[in-house]
Each structure stands twice: as structure tokens, then as C-alpha cells.
Amino acid sequence: MLKRSSKRKAYFFFSTVVALTLTVNPFLAESSYAAPTTSTQAKLEQSLEDYTAAKKEYEAVQKQISSSDKRLNESFQQLTKLQDEQEKTKKRLDSVLVRLYTSGHNNMGVQILGSRSFSEFIGRLEGIRLLMESDYQIYQKFKLQKVEIEKNHDSIKKEADDSRKLLVDAEKQMNKLQSQYQSLQKVLKEEQTKKIAKTIVKESKVTVSDPKKVVSNQSWINRARAMIGKVQYKFGGTSYPYFDCSGWVQYVFREFRGINLPRTSGAQSKVGIPVSKSNLQPGDLIFLEGTYKAGVSHVGIYLGNGLYISNSNEKSDLRIDSLNKTYTKTHYWGAKRVN
To answer: Is 206 domain-assigned?
Structure first.
């Protein structure tokens, strides 16, 4: 009985291990570093990371090509300069040879180079020989340098050509990942729009066409607040996670509420109906003026209890501020309700 019991336990343990292996293995095959997720948001974030990495790789190859081109130009300039020096030396050698062997006088021993005696000629000839030997050595040195520079030039050119091939591949990969990211954005937007539509039908009787009424479903505000620490300020930015103040508000209203707002804070201030401070409700748009230019120049979303959230600047990014703060009170322009 003891043996049978041991065998049964061993068989059960073996079966369990096999079952677990078959269950877990497909996931391990799909991803060796993390368990997969079915969340569209998680896929979108991963897709953004992949695209960002591919973009950095593309930019790195671009820098490498730029560096190669610069060194290639320097090498070409060195080669040109060396060829000029080499040509000058060659001309000096040729000139000496011409003077030695094309004299118009019969008495070469006395008349060559204007020598007044044979001994003077021998002295001059020795000087010429030494000069020619020196020039010849310089000429040979230039030849070796030229060979070396040409090798270096060819090597850099090959490096640049190889980098350009890598650039093409990196660009293809970056564009592919960008398309995947944009596709996932569309999927997420569709899911969010459907979810918002269902929530509005279920929890709110407010019609979208009546801006005077307050939207009772304000879960989207919590989603906007949850972006603190993720969103970064970038002047003129309109794509996640880089926005300026109006770019972020436009993104939140489009993605979380299905409402298309104009691009700038000034244009957004002309949408909806005016709301006094005493009648502010969560979700209303808060506008400031004269923050960095004349007129409406900043926008945020009212949260309730005298607080509003906005993508402020490069130093603080997305944050929550009080309407009672001196700066806000000084620059307060007004509020609008957009439904």
C-alpha cells in the first residue's frame, strides 16, 4: 500500500508539472521577460516605448552618418592639400632636371648653370644632388601619406555607406512601430468612446447639445488627474505624453469625452457658455490671461473645491493649483462650460 501511495503521489506530481509546463510555456514563448497583457492601454504604452527606442536608434544612426560625413570631408581636404604639396615638390624636381639636361652650351662641364670653372660646377652639382635627394625623400614621404589617407578615406566612405543602409532599416522599423502605435491609439479611442457612451446613457440624462447643464458623469476627470506624473510640458505639444496647456485639454476632451476643442487656449475660450466663479462645476474650463502674452494664454480644468488642474510649464508639468492663489487670482480671465 505504501508503494502504491508513493507511486500515485509521484504520478500526480509529474502530471501537475506537465500541466503547468503546457500552460505556462506558450506565454514564455511569446515573451521571455514579462507576462503578456490584454489591456489595450498597456499595449499602447509598450508600443510607445518600442517606437521611442526605435526613434532613438534612428537618430543615433543619423548622428553616426553626420560624423562620418564630417570625417570624410576632413580626409578629402587633407588629401587635396597633400596632393598640392606633392605637385609642388615634383615641379621642383622637374625644374632641376630640365636645367641640368637642356643647356644650350657645348661645354657642359663649364657652362651648365653658369659655372665659371669645372670645380665650381662640381660644387653646384653636389648641391643640386643634395637638393634633389631631399625633394625626392619628401616626394616619397608624400606618396606614403597619400596612400595612407586614401585608405582612411575609403574606410570612412565604407562606414558611411554601411550606416546609410542601417538608416534605411532603422527608418522602416521606426515607421512600422509608429503605425502600430497609431493603430492602437485608434483602437483605444474607440474603446473609450464606446465606454463613455455607455456610461452617459446609463448614468446621465444630460444631452450633449445642451451646454447649460452639468455632465453628471465625471469619472473622466479622475482619468485626467491620473495623468499627473506621466504628462510632460512641451510648448506646442499635442501628442501623448508631451503637451502644452491647451494641447493637453484638447487631448483630454477628445479622448475621454469625445468632444473636439480648438487647438489654442484663446480659441478654446470662445467655445461653450460663460460660467461665474460661484457657479463653477467640475469639468468647466478655467482660463488665465497675460501669463506670457496679452489676452487668454492659459487653460485648465476645474476639479471642484476651488482647485483646477493644468499643464503649467516645463518646471512643474501637469499639476493641481488653487483658484485662490495670488497668481491665479491676478491672471484669472473666466470660465466656460463645454458639453
So the answer is: no
Catalytic hit among 245, 260, 279, 313: 245
Number of neighbouring beta carbons within 10 Å of residue 115: 18
* Beta carbons of 86 and 202 less than 8 angstroms apart: no
User: 152, 311, 313, 324: which is the annotated catalytic residue?
Assistant: 311
Instruction: Quote the cell numbers at residue 291.
Output: 501669463
Q: What angle do CA 264, 266, 267 make, to 5 degrees?
A: 65
229 and 326 within one domain: yes
Residue 197 maps to a domain: no
- Per the annotation, the verdict on 105 as an active-site residue is no
Domain count, the chain: 2
CB 303 within 8 A of CB 282: yes
285-289 and 332-337 as β-strands: parallel, antiparallel, unpaired? antiparallel
User: Which one of 144, 163, 186 terminates a domain?
Assistant: 186
CATH at residue 97: 1.10.287
Based on the residue annotation, tell me whether 217 is a catalytic residue of this protein.
Answer: no
Identify the domain containing residue 118 by its residue range: 40-186
| Active site (annotated) includes residue 311 | yes
Among the listed residues 298, 305, 313, 324, the single catalytic one is 298
Tens-binned pLDDT, residue by residue, of the chain (339 aa): 444 444 444 444 444 433 444 333 433 333 333 333 458 878 878 888 888 888 888 888 888 878 877 887 787 787 777 777 777 777 766 666 665 555 444 444 444 556 566 666 666 666 666 666 776 777 677 778 778 777 777 877 787 788 778 888 888 888 888 888 888 888 887 887 777 556 544 543 433 334 444 445 678 999 999 999 999 999 999 999 999 999 999 999 999 999 999 999 999 999 999 999 999 999 999 999 999 999 999 999 999 999 999 998 888 889 999 999 999 999 999 999 998
132 & 77 share domain: yes
Query: What is the domain-level CATH number for residue 304?
Result: 3.90.1720.10
